[in-house]
Amino acid sequence: MDPVRNPYAPGAGQRPPELAGRDRELLQFEVVLERVARGRPERSMVVTGLRGVGKTVLLNTFRSMAIQRLWGTGKIEARPEQSIRRPVAAALHTAVRELAPRHRAPDRIEWFLGVLKAFAQAGPQPTTRAKAPAHRWQPGIDVPAVRGRADSGDLEIDLTELFVDAASVATDLGVGIGLFVDEMQDIPAEDVSALCAACHELSQTGGPLIVVGAGLPHLPAVLSASKSYSERLFRYARIDRLDRESADLALLVPAEREEVSFTPEALDALYEAADGYPYFVQAYAKVVWDLAPTSPITAHDIAVAAPEAESELAVGFFGSRYERATPAERDYMRAMALLGDEPVPTASVADELGRKPSSLSPARDGLIKKGLIYSAERGLVAFTVPHFGKFLRAQPS
Fold first, then answer.
1. Is residue 27 domain-shared with residue 126, that is, in the same domain?
2. What is the DSSP code string of 232-264?
């Protein structure tokens, strides 16, 4: 079939042509937006799940929903060992620029931009050349910095004051501000504490600013370790693989727009291959479309295309992550894979490798920092990537 008309989109964070199976989360966020619009207190929202389940897609969709309501929005992607001070400043600068043309008091906006500039400049300066890129952003704000507000150098104090002031600007317009944070589990521990404290202050004052985060399954534990009240501070939504009906919709709706169909047997085969994971659904469907000679797409077409789809996943989805690991970290992951696909005890990994658990801590911690595994609960580890164990078991020793 014509590859130019291929509707499927297996890209990182790329919205699929049919966002199936996420109606509950979209409705939850619609309620959040409506409550904030009515001046009612509402918790910020956090979406968690494995890689490839569509967290970034959902986060971007939430942001689009806020923009449609004329909210000011900004987005950051957290990175390990990088303070969120400057990324948050840049994101809120974007949000306020969206609101500024509608604000009746230019002086009010100018004052807030001065606070924002002071906040951005109050953080520590880079001490080494290696860290310089993380601090390179400078606020393109042509107003003098406001002294004495959000510029103490203590991120918790400064972020709280900044959020309160940003919410005040939004209140003047009768709208909200949304700060969207991807890879939220990578925020440094001290910054997580500051972010939670700032959100806690907003929850008490009812200010129309919300933080919407997305991260790996252990993100709630990261937040809880920072502030005990974070369990009540955020509305958590765990997303996972699609059920059969939703996976079929993700395939059929885009195909029908191109006047292409699938046989029931083909849908059976695709669901078995992709296991309902949204990224895999798109990856298999894209290759199948390109290789199928005509409509309807059959189970035979799936069988022919599956090896090529799996080869592409092995290189782009699994292999690129595997290559980031050190030899010791690869040994640790291979041991995990031999123990199965469910979360495994760290003691069992040590037994598999014939080592003491304490000697494997550097490898385990390195894998967690790289986002390849996570601590499912105390003493247990699991892969952040679905089917990663299967991929590792297929590799030569």
1. yes
2. HHEEEEE--PPPHHHHHHHHHHHHHHTT--B-H
Residue 213: other Cβ atoms inside 10 A: 27
**pTM higher than the cut 0.85:** yes
> How far apart (Å, rounded) are the C-alpha atoms in residues 193 and 225?
9
8 A C-beta contact, residue 371 and residue 384: yes
Cα(75)–Cα(330) distance, integer angstroms = 33
Q: Residue type for 310, please?
A: E
Q: What pLDDT does 41 receive?
A: 78
Residue 256 and residue 374 share a domain: no
> What is the rounded average pLDDT for all residues in the chain?
91
Last residue of a domain, one of 238, 262, 297: 238
> Which has the closest alpha carbon to 212: 82, 370, 339, 42?
42
Domain of residue 361 covers: 326-393
Given a cut of 70, whether residue 137 has pLDDT beyond it is no
Q: Quick one: DSSP state of residue 270?
A: H
Domain count, the chain: 3
**Residue 138 pLDDT class (50, 70, 90 cuts):** low
Q: Rounded distance, CA 88 to CA 391, Å?
A: 37
Residue 376 maps to which CATH number? 1.10.10.10
Length of the chain: 397
16 in a structural domain: no
Pair 165, 114: CB distance under 8 Å: no
Distance in angstroms between the alpha carbons of the first and the last residue of the chain: 39
Domain end position, chosen among 269, 302, 321: 321
Instruction: Using CB atoms within 10 Å of the CB of residue 100, give its burial: 0 to 12 exposed, 13 to 18 middle, 19+ buried.
Output: middle
- Report CA 348 to chain centroid distance, whole Å: 30
Q: 296: cis peptide before it, omega within 30°?
A: yes
Question: Do 307 and 349 belong to one domain?
Answer: no
pLDDT band at 64 (very low <50, low <70, confident <90, very high): very high
Those residues with Cβ within 8 angstroms of residue 177's Cβ, 6 or more apart along the chain or in another chain: 71, 72, 73, 74, 92, 95, 96, 99, 166, 167, 169, 170, 208, 209, 210
In CATH, what number is assigned to the domain containing residue 261? 1.10.8
17 occurs within a structural domain:
no
